[in-house]
């Protein structure tokens, strides 16, 4: 398996579920397989919508598709707090 900057299990899950690259590309709205190939090789990350689509198609959770990235983020304590202010679970977010 080729591993780029963003290691993942997209190719493995695709194969386990019996999909060709062409079929997956068509289902998620791409006319060819080049984008999917770049995702599977870890060259670029898919967008959040595509991650959710792939996760649903492959009957798994998004973090299972990118388990190494997920584990790295879990270890990154800088994501828990910032210098400016701590995250408070009671805070509301407004758009």
Helix and strand arrangement:
Blueprint: H1 10-16, H2 21-27, H3 34-40, H4 48-57, H5 62-65, H6 67-75
CATH superfamily of the domain at 10-70: lambda repressor-like DNA-binding domains
What radius of gyration results from the CA coordinates? 16 Å
Percentage of β-strand residues: under 5%
Q: Which fold does the CATH topology of the domain at 10-70 refer to?
A: 434 Repressor (Amino-terminal Domain)
SS field, number of helical segments: 6
* Mean of pLDDT: 86
Structural class: mainly alpha
Instruction: Kindly state the percentage of residues in helix.
Output: 40-55%
Q: What is the annotated CATH architecture of the domain at 10-70? A: Orthogonal Bundle
The counted number of beta strands is 0
Which CATH class of the domain at 10-70 applies here?
Answer: Mainly Alpha
Q: How would the global form be characterised?
A: elongated
Order of helices and strands: HHHHHH
Low-confidence segments, ≥5 residues, pLDDT <50? none
Question: CA-to-CA gap between the ends?
Answer: 41 Å
Q: Characterize the largest beta sheet: strand count, sense, and whether it forms a barrel.
A: none
């Amino acid at each position: 398996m080729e591993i780029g900057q963003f290691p993942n299990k997209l190719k493995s899950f695709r194969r386990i579920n019996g999909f060709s690259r062409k079929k997956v590309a068509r289902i998620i709205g791409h006319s060819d397989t080049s984008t999917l190939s770049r995702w599977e090789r870890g060259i670029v990350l898919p967008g959040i919508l595509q991650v959710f689509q792939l996760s649903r198609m492959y009957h798994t959770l998004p973090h299972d598709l990118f388990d190494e990235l997920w584990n790295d983020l879990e270890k990154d304590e800088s994501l828990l707090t910032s210098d400016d202010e701590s995250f408070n679970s009671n805070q509301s977010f407004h758009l």
